[in-house]
Amino acid sequence: MADYRRLYHDGGTYFFTLVTYDRREFLTSDLARRCLRYAWNQTRRKHPFRVDAVCLLPNHIHCIWTLPEDDCDFSIRWRMLKGLFSMRFLARGGHEFNRNTSRTRKGEVAVWQRRFWEHLIKDEDDFVRHADYVHYNPVKHGYTVRPRDWEWSSFHRSVREGYYDPNWGDTEPHNIRNLKCVGE
Predict the structure, then answer these.
(1) Cα separations (Å) of 90 from 28, 95, 100, 115, 171?
(2) Could you tell me if residue 78 is inside a domain?
(3) Which of 10, 64, 145, 158 gets the highest tally of CB atoms within 10 A of its CB?
(4) What CATH number did the domain enclosing 50 receive?
(5) Is 162 contained in some domain?
(6) Alpha carbon separation from 147 to 19, 64, 135 (Å, rounded)
(7) pLDDT tens, position by position, 74-129
(8) What residues form DSSP beta bridges with 119?
(9) Domain range spanning residue 47?
C-alpha cells in the first residue's frame, strides 16, 4: 500500500488536481457543472476557502485554493465536495461508471478517482507558475488554441483583475514547460 503524506499548513495556498473515475469525460456537461457549482458553494459555506485559480476540463479540475489563517484541512473540503457532487449528479440523472471489485466491496460510487493531487505553494514564483499551468491547461490538452477561448476557467476573471493580458498564452508560457503535475 502506498504511503501518502499530505503537507498541512494553516492558511496555506495549495494547487490541486482532481480527476474523474477512469478519466471519464463528463465534467463540462450542463448537469455536471450545475452539480459541481452546488457542491462547491455548499462546501465553501461550511468550510471556507478562497479560489485563486480554477479550470474545469472534461475529466479533471485544476485549482488553487487559499485556506483560512487558522485552518489547514483541505481534505475535508474535497471529501465533502466530491460527496455532494456525486450524490446530486447521480440523483439528477448522471451515470455512475462500472465499479471495480474494491469499490463495490466498499460501497463507493464510481464518479471520482479516490485521491487527489495537492502541492503546497512555496512562494510567489511558485504561485505564478501554477496559476499559469491552470490557465494554460485547456490549450495543453488540445481543447482550445488560446486560454481566452476556454469558457470554464478563472482566466477571464484574472484578465478583468489585471493579472493577465487577454492575449496571454497565445504561445506556451516559458515558466510552465517543465512543470509536471503528477495528478494529471
Answers:
(1) 15, 6, 18, 20, 39
(2) yes
(3) 64
(4) 3.30.70.1290
(5) no
(6) 20, 17, 6
(7) 999 999 999 999 999 989 988 877 777 766 676 677 788 878 999 999 999 999 99
(8) 15
(9) 13-127
Q: Is residue 90 part of a domain?
A: yes
How many structural domains does the chain have?
A: 1
109 within a domain of the structure (yes/no): yes
Give the pLDDT confidence of 141-153 residue by residue, as tens digits. 999 999 999 999 9
Exposure string over 9-43, b if 16+ CB within 10 A, otherwise e: eeebbbbbbbbbbeebebbbeeebeebbebbbeeb
pTM of the model: 0.89
Q: Give me the phi and psi of 16, to 5 degrees please.
A: -130, 150
Which amino acid belongs to residue 163?
Answer: Y
List the grid coordinates of 102: 474494491
Amino acid at 102: S
